[in-house]
Write a structure and sequence with these properties.
single chain, mainly alpha
């Protein structure tokens, strides 16, 4: 929920393509951290990172980017 508040501002400031690259990096980092987690706390933190990437940035920025390139 908190990532959705900053997703639009970030994509307006740095651009949609760079924001989507940041989201992709967050996805990969989340998957890696989830795979090597040793306890439940680190697994929850890694999953929260992936959730923030999906909820806030990917959902918002991908729609705007597709709208920009089709016009």
């Amino acid at each position: 929920m908190f990532a959705m508040l900053g997703g639009g501002m970030l994509s307006d400031r740095v651009g949609r393509k760079k924001t989507l690259r940041l989201v992709a990096f967050c996805y990969v980092l989340s998957a890696f951290l989830s795979a090597i987690s040793q306890d439940i706390g680190s697994l929850i933190a890694a999953r929260m990172l992936g959730g923030m990437a999906f909820g806030g940035r990917a959902y918002h920025s991908s729609c705007l980017y597709i709208g920009d390139i089709t016009c």
